């Protein structure tokens, strides 16, 4: 675990050093749980968004996009349940004066049992080698069985408390498990109480006439209140979907793990409207479709798993998370939910407007059911960064920091470098850049030795480097270097576009999805 924490610290440091993510308001000592994306980070983030957007809108004829406003009528949040129920259970430690989410403290305690089991498995794997049967060991080892039984008992107690919204029981679990404050090391806890996560502000020119509004805590409601607008103007027939990428805001008290949990974040959501009774079929379809989208990036199939919800939200009849293995454990990056007809029914009730769909095939009107796919852009960004970062040992005892980014997501696709800054090489290099830049992001790089330039490009994940030397002026060939293998080959300048574009294009990624 300590090794993973050390690795995560290196990733956070690398993200700042190479222009991916900066602490917001850095020169004023930052603002807690708020981050800015740097010059390379914004390109990587935009490429992730483009991959999602085109996978939704280009590959599905029945999915269209919108961009709804951050400010919405406050009654929307009353209808959706956010005003009354969008809360976190918080607990304070009297000695450290720090505030924590009670559910997170307990989840971390459950994770400790999982870590103990994994350590037992790892020791056994090392002891038995190739003959090790992991499944059998997990089933029959007494120590693993004891740890698993205690873990399951705690998990069941925790799930029941969350289901019943029993704040006293949550506190009692913390007391019984002897969970200590990580700062003070004491167990001097307050009662657990609920805290609403929405940011509120006022709209209007005078204090008396101002209306209380909220920064949206999710983007989904902007889709729901526009569902009929899109359906009618686009002449959409069920089943159909509406996609949106946008900012959301939550006043997280326990924001942690870098950009994994922030107060300002971005979501990629698609709401898919279906006939009542067909929702679970579509739920399973989208569950498989979304996992295939993730795996197409080639970050490692074993890093993904489904986590089906035991406690369903009040609006859902099925829900699962796609979890990704971060340095700090498996964590949710995307949720797929069968939201029933809750949202549309609530908005019809609170607005007084009829927003049902007339189905010409059935010759009847009904409130559609909805399947939601919701992915956090920032969490997706972090999962890509964590899985692609490597400190790779080289010959001679050296190491290189390299980001093995999927080429289609890389901020820079190609860097062109003159071997020396004279003899017409810079001019030839710039000529190549000016030719390639219309097809994919291409950078000109001339500072420092060629080796240091390679290392800089490796660190930001550039798939290809092109070196212009004196032979280039003679026969119009260059050295093309590939990032992951570091292999170099001599190619004609005329071949560059074709060789590079086929590997860095988003099209190649999308074609994997069919």
UniProtKB/TrEMBL annotation:
UniProt EC number: 6.1.1.14
Source domain of life: Bacteria
Keywords carried by this UniProt record: Ligase
Record protein name field: Glycine--tRNA ligase
Source organism per UniProt: Muribaculum caecicola
Source species taxonomy: Bacteria, Pseudomonadati, Bacteroidota, Bacteroidia, Bacteroidales
